[in-house]
Design goal:
The complex is a heterotrimer. Chain A contains ten helices and ten strands. By secondary structure, chain A is α/β, with parallel strands linked by helices. In chain A, strands 3-2-4-5-9-8-10 form a seven-stranded mixed sheet, sandwiched between helices. Chain A starts with a helix and ends with a strand. Chain B is of the alpha/beta class. Chain B has 14 helices and 15 strands. In chain B, the strands form three sheets. In chain B, strands 3-2-4-5-7-6-13 form a seven-stranded mixed sheet, sandwiched between helices. In chain B, strand 2, helix 2 and strand 3 form a beta-alpha-beta unit. Chain B is globular, with a radius of gyration of 21 Å. Chain C is of the alpha+beta class. Chain C has a two-stranded antiparallel ribbon with strand order 1-4. The chains are: A alpha/beta, B alpha/beta, C alpha+beta. At the A-B interface, strand 2, strand 3, helix 3 and helix 5 of A face helix 3, helix 5 and strand 9 of B.
């Protein structure tokens, strides 16, 4: 069988989701954002929500998410995406509304907006990319930076006495009455990616069923600012991030 | 029923007018002296009648960003606060100006700086008309001087905001917010339907119905050449607003030798000042800017050539006086008088100041 | 049971050469180009052992940039 015989439309088994357009993504090679973007694009299409989705992008590496996934978007001020989403969902209750935020945006400057939107039980989904560092600004300490981890603003490693402790926003979210589904996933392997996709689908569905707010944390890599190759970054994440940020559902009230 | 005269506070009038003018959403946070806006909306339960969304946010930062989100959907959304809260809102206001979104922000201002006082003040003039947030932007600013105008300006502010895709502000103060006056509320106007919003606001985030091109609400553009073009376009919009939307009221300016320029609460006192001054043989008139931006510079310049002096009466340390001087360009003396700390000047003391400063 | 034959098509201009597809492939089908770079200067992924491909899609699933299209056909 020749390659040409295999490469026929009827034999197609995987291609880039249609909602992910052809604009080259600005993310660094191997960045987890791209994988999560694909999953979001796939889930929106599979739910048939292409014409009814409003997404909110953050400030941080994903600020330009609106350039890549072909739905309506609003670009929020730093940390404020859940406030925008709260209003948008209440004003358009039949739309799929989600935010896409990094750890600096969500767990630091936007902690207030995040916790209150979740606690109000807004029928939205928050997708939370946690790579324990500020990517866009060049690798500074994030609220989720692990103890001992070196960043541009804790170059000798994060120390509790100097910098405080890493924040587990997802654990906090699980205690809030307004949340329906709170889960922590990752996208470093095929199995993890398929699970993460199911989690995003579940969160989006719950939000459309009016069951409350949903938080999907994706423990991610930032190989550039971690100063590792993409492959090494995935290994480092498994060894160092997963023990502190264990994967799995923290709450499923659906 | 619609024409019925009722007695209510300025803050209550804002709330009732919002419901009646087809407002889709209010997002706010309690702060004295404007809390009655949110309280009235909560008591009226418009979500059961017009379908208007009312939400108490966790902060003014959240309120204004809810307004940013809501404004992006093409719906009529608003918030209200008082000075310290409005300071917190500057981020969202700047983003909305940059993303060119219509909305209404009401500032029932109080004395500052800092936590200041809960008494009325006009010390937020600079913050409002010079762009309190970052970047080159302007807010269409209406300054009501009565409870009736509190009610009337809600619809007008939305109309201007949508006409120019720009945030509008009602700059009031604690006196007008708290005082009770008779008011004729505006007639009920239905909220726009989804179809009407999609037609009138083709830029809004309504979802990609019919798989139209995605709508993106953003103020971000990293390419300098493109960002300059955006800024130039926004500035040309501001020039159009300056040309078309200046609003003011004149009172006894026809034969005036001296002119008071005052807005809001200060303008109310000015009318009493004028009657006392005229009893004493001093011909004084009033120009009351209704739009603080765009500022009635042209009319003030015209009047400047007819009068012997202009007094800017403000409940602050002298802010609008700078805009008057710029308009007058030295044609006639321009002085300021005002009180601080939440004190409204007495008409008699203003008459005394007029005499002291000009005669 | 019939054997599955697969083929990958890499959008070499979109590929950033991150190498995640290479470690995801159970059959070592892919490798980074050694001679060629794309317009952005990246060594891109290419099939060096195409006959080993079963069309399992692992490479495409992990690709952050959606560069890989996969086809699969049952061997007759």
């Amino acid at each position: 069988m020749t390659k040409e015989e295999i490469i026929q439309p009827e034999n197609l088994v995987y291609k880039k989701p249609e909602l992910l357009n052809d604009t080259p993504m600005h993310y660094c090679p191997g960045c987890s954002h791209g994988v999560v973007h694909k999953l979001v694009a796939e889930v929106i299409a599979e739910m048939g929500m292409q014409e009814k989705t409003i997404a909110i992008s953050p400030v941080g590496c994903a600020v330009f998410a609106y350039k890549y996934i072909d739905v309506d978007w609003q670009e929020a001020a730093h940390g404020r995406a859940p406030a925008l989403a709260s209003a948008i969902k209440r004003l358009w209750p039949d739309r799929l509304v989600f935010t896409y935020q990094g750890d600096g945006d969500l767990a630091c400057i936007g902690t207030g907006e995040t916790i209150h939107a979740l606690n109000r039980g807004e029928n939205i989904t928050i997708i939370f990319i946690n790579n324990a560092i500020y990517g866009m600004t060049g690798g500074q300490m994030a609220p989720t930076t692990l103890l001992g981890m070196k960043t541009a603003t804790c170059p000798y490693g994060r120390e509790p006495a100097l910098h405080g402790y890493p924040l587990k926003v997802t654990e906090i979210a699980a205690t809030l009455q307004g949340t329906c589904y709170v889960t922590r996933q990752s996208v470093q392997s095929v199995a993890a990616i398929l699970k993460a996709k199911k989690a995003i689908r579940k969160a989006f569905e719950y939000s459309m069923q009016g069951k409350g707010s949903n938080l999907v944390e994706i423990v991610s890599t930032c190989n550039t600012n971690w100063r590792m190759s993409p492959v090494k970054a995935n290994q480092w994440m498994e060894e160092n991030m997963f023990p502190f940020y264990p994967l799995g559902d923290l709450k499923d009230n659906g | 029923m619609d024409k019925e005269v009722t007695l209510m506070k300025g803050n209550e009038a804002i709330a009732h007018a919002a419901i009646r003018c087809g407002c889709d959403g209010y997002f706010g946070y309690p702060i004295t002296p404007q809390s009655e806006v949110l309280e009235t909306l909560a008591a009226e339960k418009p979500w059961e009648t017009t379908g208007m969304v009312v939400l108490q946010a966790e902060s003014e930062v959240a309120s204004i960003n809810m307004v940013y989100g809501g404004a992006g959907t093409g719906k009529k959304v608003m918030t209200s606060s008082s000075s310290p809260g409005v300071s917190l809102m500057q981020e969202g206001i700047s983003y909305m100006a940059g993303a060119e979104l219509p909305c209404l922000v009401v500032n029932v201002s109080r004395g500052g700086p800092g936590l200041g006082t809960i008494q009325p003040s006009q010390a937020d003039y600079f913050q409002t008309v010079k762009g309190g947030g970052h970047g080159d932007y302007r807010l269409i600013t209406l300054a009501p001087a009565s409870v009736q105008e509190m009610a009337d300006f809600v619809d007008l502010a939305f109309e201007l905001a949508f006409r120019y895709r720009n945030p509008a502000m009602i700059l009031s103060d604690g006196a007008i917010g708290q005082m009770m006056e008779k008011v004729v509320l505006p007639p009920f106007k239905p909220r726009r339907t989804e179809e009407e919003i999609m037609k009138e606001c083709p830029w809004a985030t309504t979802g990609r119905k019919g798989m139209r091109k995605p709508n993106i609400i953003t103020s971000l553009e990293l390419r300098s050449e493109e960002m300059e073009k955006i800024n130039i376009r926004i500035q040309s919009k501001y020039r159009e607003i300056e040309a078309k939307e200046v609003r003011f009221e004149e009172y006894m300016t026809g034969d005036a030798d001296y002119l008071i320029v005052a807005f809001g609460s200060a303008a109310r006192i000015s009318k009493k000042v004028i009657s006392i001054a005229r009893e004493q043989g001093l011909k004084v008139g009033l120009l009351r800017p209704i739009t603080l931006w765009p500022f009635p510079s042209k009319r003030i310049a015209e009047l400047a050539s007819k009068v012997k002096g202009i007094l800017s009466l403000e409940i602050n340390a002298g802010q609008m006086v700078e805009d008057i001087r710029m308009a007058v360009e030295g044609k006639t003396p321009v002085e300021w008088y005002g009180r601080l700390g939440g004190i409204i000047p007495e008409p008699e003391e203003v008459v005394a100041q007029l005499k002291k400063l000009f005669i | 049971m019939a054997k599955m034959r697969g083929a990958t098509v890499v959008d070499t201009e979109r590929c950033k050469g991150c190498g995640l597809c290479i470690v995801a492939c159970p059959f070592k089908v892919l490798a980074l180009s050694t001679k060629n770079v794309n317009q952005k200067g990246y060594n891109y992924a290419e099939a060096v052992a195409p006959d080993a491909c079963t069309g399992c899609t692992s490479c495409a699933i992990v690709c952050p940039d959606g560069c890989i299209t996969v086809y699969r056909k049952k061997e007759d």
